Give the backbone structure.
Amino acid sequence: MTQILVIGVDPTSRRTLEAVLTAEGYGVQWVADGTAALKHLADAQPAMVICEWDLPGTVSGLDLCQHIHETPRLSTTLCFMLAARQSSAQRTKALDLGADDLLLKPLDPVELKARIRSGIRMWQLTRDLQAQKQLLEAELSEAEAYVRSLLPSDDRQHQVQICSRFIPSRLLGGDCFDYYWLDPDYLVIYLLDVSGHGLGSALLSTSVLNVLRSQSLPDVNFYRPEKVLKALNETFPMNDQNEKYFTIWYGVYNRANRQLLYASAGHPPAVLISGQSTADTTIERLRTSGMPIGMLPEATYKWQRCLVPPNSRLYLFSDGIYEIAQADQTLLGLDGFIDILAQVPQQDSIDNILAEVSQRNAQDTFTDDLSLLEIALN
């Protein structure tokens, strides 16, 4: 039964309210003042509160409306103020403090019934929307857990040590990454970012991950980055993926001769930082030309090779880590993020990098997925 709380009304108004509310089949609770109403609202969550403008005691009707408006648990509860004729300024103040409607004395039963019915319809709609929002958030949380379950764990046991971090945005995006050995000497490393947000982007990113992890692209040499990107472009055209495309950086590292072959498709460059100290640090941006995967069926991709000096660190990341607004409202940007990478001492962890980025972020959360891989190539 839909519950309505009535607070501190005069006897005449109470008779009218009682007749209308009872006839409509609502459950009604009556309390005398604002203090009693606060105690009642500590546990109850009525659909509607009908409150006298001038209440006895220290808690006014406007105080109650403001309390309801500011309490998350009562976010769907409507607050109707019952008052004699008020000035326009007073009505505006009541609405600003959370009142959803004003009922003027003397109460007209026909108008009262219409106002109550309209309010209850609004309450039901708000509850339905809130339930849908909670369902969507639960689905996004489940999708986030699924994506996390597919991502590889840190590898600190070999000559090549790998650490990774994944921080999804509130909406969940399309970041995904992986690393695995093709044979004892060749390590595959890649990171991709699907356009858009939500379940569709997450599903496409995990589909690509599963295809690459299982090496199920037909007749493809997975040691050749440009051939992998070409095959992905043919397998995942955006016309077949709800107009979604993705960027990717894909590399193959040979630890025997310390050579890295790589290719990229519209993705931010990987960053190779070499040197024992900040004084002799060298920074290379590793990127090749190429359209994002799925955008153009005739797109071509090129590969590059680089030698990796001892004591090097390779960073892969998505653009969510540097497309953030700082306190002065300027963007951190790619150059700013690479400066952070260059300044972090080699012995520091990947978490120190994220801590520095978070400190620069003017918002409490990241607006896009954030992925970061650090590969220590000793």
Remarks:
- The radius of gyration is 30 Å.
- Residues 3-138 form a domain with the Rossmann fold fold (CATH 3.40.50.2300).
- Residues 222 and 228 are 6 Å apart (CA to CA).
- DSSP finds nine helices and 15 strands in the chain.
